[in-house]
Amino acid sequence: MSRAKPSLSDAALRKLKPTGQRYEITDSVVTGLRARISSGGEVAFILKARNAAGQLKTVTLGCYPQVSLKEAREAANRARLDLKDGRDINGEKRKIRTAAAQPAELVTLRDLVCEFEGRFASSKKTWAPRGPKSERSGARQVIERVYANLLAKDVVEVTDEDFAHAVLSYRRVNPSNGKATANGQASRARGYLGPVLDWAAGRRSYSKIGASRMPRLNVANLATTHDPAAADPTITGKRNRVLTEAELRAVLPLLQYPAPKIGDLKLQPGSDYRPIAMRFLLFTAARLEEVCSMRWGDFDRVNHVWHKPSVKSTKGGPRSQDLPLSEAAVSVLRQLPQWACANSKDLVFPNSTGDGPLGNWTRYQRALCEASRTQGWHRHDLRRTAATIMHSLKVPTSTIEHILAHSDPFRGANVGGAASHYLQLTRVLNETRDPQEEALAILANALELIETGSFVTNASFRHGAISGCSASL
Predict the structure, then answer these.
(1) What are the GO BP annotations of this UniProt entry (predicted)?
(2) Which domain, by its residues, includes 173?
(3) Cβ neighbourhood burial of 199 (10 Å; 0-12, 13-18, 19+)
(4) Do residues 309 and 339 both lie within one domain?
(5) What is the mean pLDDT of residues 339-361?
(6) I want to staple 200 with a disulfide (CB 3.0 to 4.6 A). Which of 217, 283, 306, 437 is the partner?
């Protein structure tokens, strides 16, 4: 028996009392959403809607107050669209219940990590193979080092105490860079493994049906374990290293193509694109992975715009970015031998064989530091350095944020990302330059003056001070 109500509300739901009979209250805000009250007073949200075949289906959305009215309305809208798309929501729930009732399969920690890697290698860069000679991802490699003694065990039998002990007792096999502890690497392994276990158990961002592993596993939660980096004073979190003017003057002449001969690197100058890739990184304030994955088809030669199919954002998930380049950045591309004959799918900065992305960066970085007589900086610090130079030269913070892809300039403006395709038309009609292009041109001019030894910066940049806009690069 149904009782008509004008609309569901949190106040009305809190006042519901058991009547000894089951009844339903219909929501007037979301079509098909109802609150079903049992004879004992328990409240469950349900959706009654038709599927792609026109059949009326009832989908249980959750119980109140564990699921709020707002969450129920959002879930109802999603479920209605899923039904229209032909998704069998109730069938998926039955499969999960059936799988849970069956004897659990033996899944080792190694099996689970490999499963996760296979599922997310295409969408999560840390889980993609490290290179053509390795099938393992960087995340898997770190996990297998730190949790080596647990890999062969049934993952549901491994407790949070076991995981915590593995992290706290881990010692670096080959100490490097003078570090006394391996807390940084142990912390990374913990950070990589946490989402794997959450995916297996259907927790946090993997709680929705279809987002987690099927069947789900009752595995430990790393949120209850200690992060060794939290109590290590030598690990300060975000890097804030910026190269000084003197360091840039020493490094920039080595970032050329063909590659200068430095250290004991054996690659032929014409086959080593790492130096020129680092120069391009510095001229565009891009991330290294963005430069390494850049293809010739991503570069608009008419508008001089670099289309990045996917960039990491500090606000929201991955998205694309269109970055107008300075003439100096474009000239870096022009000097490459593939400029006139490259296929659109070819990498702009390929490895020595020409069929894969650049790699072996640690060895090259070490040789570069020795040749330039610099130390204590990382490749990613070039991006932070570029941002700091632009800020020192009074480039607006909002423009730097757009270049770094920390924010979406079109968010909330109801403007499509293809707007940058009209850059040439804008130049002709308005006789203006894109602020990002102008900022990168200012950066390029500064770098040219630094390289030739005729640029004197203000004290804040000389001493490596970091502006607020670049602290979270």
Answers:
(1) DNA integration; DNA recombination
(2) 109-231
(3) buried
(4) yes
(5) 89
(6) 217
